[in-house]
Amino acid sequence: MHGLPCPDVLEIVDSGSDVIDSGPCDYLPKTSLWERLGSVSMMDIESSNFCWTSLSSLHHTKHTTASSEPTEDDINRSFEVTVNSGGVVFIALFKTSKNGEVPSKEAAAVIKIAPSRMATQSERFGYELAKWLGVRTPQGRVIHSSSCEWQQIKDAVENARHEAIAVGDELQEMICTEMLEALELSRCLFLMNYVHGSPLLESTTPFDSPEFAEKTAEALGRILILDLILRNEDRLRCRPLGWRGNYANLLVAYKEAYANLDSLDDIHDSAIIRYKPEIIKSPKKQKQRRSVSISGSVGSDISELLEDSYDQIEPEISSFHIVAIDSGVPRRPPASKRTKDQESYPRLVELTLNNLDYSSNLLFEVSIGKLGTPGPEEYDMSSDYSYHSPLSESDMVAIVNSFRGGFRSALRDLQRFHIFLLTLYQKLDALLKIFFNLMYKGSNESDKEDAGHSDSPLCRVEAHTDLSDSEVPRHMRRPSRTLSRDSFDMSSPICRESFMMKNWKANGDASRGLRLTMKLREFNKYAKVDSELNKEIEQWNDMLRTDVVKLCHDNNFNTGFFEGIDNSVAVDAYELKVRLEHLLERISLISDAASTERPSQITYHMYIGGALAARSTYTLRHLGITHVLCLCANEIGQSESQKPCLFDYRNFSINDDENAEITDVFQDACD
């Protein structure tokens, strides 16, 4: 988690506590940090007018205890606060009131520093995908150390530290010092809106009325699609998928927490519009359908095919939103998990779309028993969680349909921008093949020189890799040179990120050595001293900006990558391509499972359906169907789509004529 969701996480549960925040502003009333955060305004962190000079104080969540005096452990603690995706989090408070105004008005933002640049950029990428699926997330952007803003941040933190020293605030001085240390070691940070909310399961409002529960269920349906794409098992509990869940990553934010969102930019010309223009209504109608999300961007409910759940929301129902945090895109899931996904994803998606009972059981699972109905033993959670819902059975049917509606709506959004993601992947793949050829050319030319030099450009890293030889381009499997590890120093990005990984707990790509990525970095260093090769790389960078960066910009899609210095562009391209490759693999699993339908029941033992129903294996088995009669103009090709190990098939050739006599076929089926 990184949104600092609740009093439990902040360790200041009692809002009436006498906790005194020892900030540098003496005129602030004595109040807890949690209370102060509850009254702050939300900042538009993407505004060009965003100013760091108004930074007044920084806060570490676990440095705030029941006493305003820092303990020895507090003073000696460094980078202790970790989050699920790795890294440290600071809450930044800004003055927004005029000089002398009492009480002082404040705004808040969250600064997250992950163990690596890729982890930060991947989280920004995940937030972009969430926005496209209509899932509410905090507004966020990546700030790189190469930008002018980085120095502004350092200056603002240094000023806050001096103010803390002036008033004798040791805790604030220590936190500012930690922040300055982190800035020195880091290559980027993730700046986000602060969302003042509580974890979903600790809130009663989303479940205590049919209207609220329907809205919550609809949001859970969308979030489930997002997490299936991301393969995020650290939010919703779903035992059929092997997900443990972490509901601190789902916040309930109330109206006061996002009251100023109306002032934010609401223009969202997404790639959905570019790639599927026929689904957009007239401009007037389209404008009416815009819904500003917690992140300050317009939601993705722009299709006439989507349900009108957001259009018809009553004022009191819109008083809260479900906000998803910590949505990073993993680099490459383990092979064992990928294999399991290929088995479990199709079943879950197909049955959620085609079977109401299964959907109800699944909703019961992902809501930890607060919505839906308990089902088979795999969903029976009575021993884990006890909750007596005030909702009637008819209410629950409507709630389950809302869950399925949110699931379907997000699935439609996904299918629309699937084309864009595929286009982006193909362009990256083509450009990287060109770049690998440059690397191969450079290595061959260098082979003509003395091969014994220890400072040769391509780094050969044998250990700590998650890349198999089969995943490395064929001409890159046997590097022709090695780089002496003794030549590493703390000024190199590799060593700096290695240092960060040793000192911070993390999972995913930040904890692994990436062999080909390191080769790309070292090749960029070597190319600088070869004027001809450097010129070719500059031309390649221009091609990437024209083909990829412009594509994303034209479609208002922010991957979080390609915003750093040119030296990292090839690395970013490769890392984004790897993530897209596995995203598209999961999207294909989901899309194939969605290309199914439930057959219609015509008698107690007989169903009728088309080709989609015939290929809906999990739906047919769930209904108890054992025999399938295939009626086609000819039998050629029928066997290719059939699964005789699961069903008994009878194939019949009939005329493609609506007046054809098929009574005998149904008689055979009944017999």
Automatic annotation (TrEMBL):
<dbReference type="GO" id="GO:0004721">
    <property type="term" value="F:phosphoprotein phosphatase activity"/>
</dbReference>
<dbReference type="InterPro" id="IPR029021">
    <property type="entry name" value="Prot-tyrosine_phosphatase-like"/>
</dbReference>
<dbReference type="InterPro" id="IPR011009">
    <property type="entry name" value="Kinase-like_dom_sf"/>
</dbReference>
<dbReference type="GO" id="GO:0009737">
    <property type="term" value="P:response to abscisic acid"/>
</dbReference>
<dbReference type="InterPro" id="IPR036940">
    <property type="entry name" value="PI3/4_kinase_cat_sf"/>
</dbReference>
<dbReference type="InterPro" id="IPR015275">
    <property type="entry name" value="Actin-fragmin_kin_cat_dom"/>
</dbReference>
<dbReference type="InterPro" id="IPR035010">
    <property type="entry name" value="PHS1"/>
</dbReference>
<feature type="domain" description="Actin-fragmin kinase catalytic">
    <location>
        <begin position="32"/>
        <end position="329"/>
    </location>
</feature>
<dbReference type="Pfam" id="PF09192">
    <property type="entry name" value="Act-Frag_cataly"/>
</dbReference>
<protein>
    <recommendedName>
        <fullName>Actin-fragmin kinase catalytic domain-containing protein</fullName>
    </recommendedName>
</protein>
<dbReference type="GO" id="GO:0043622">
    <property type="term" value="P:cortical microtubule organization"/>
</dbReference>
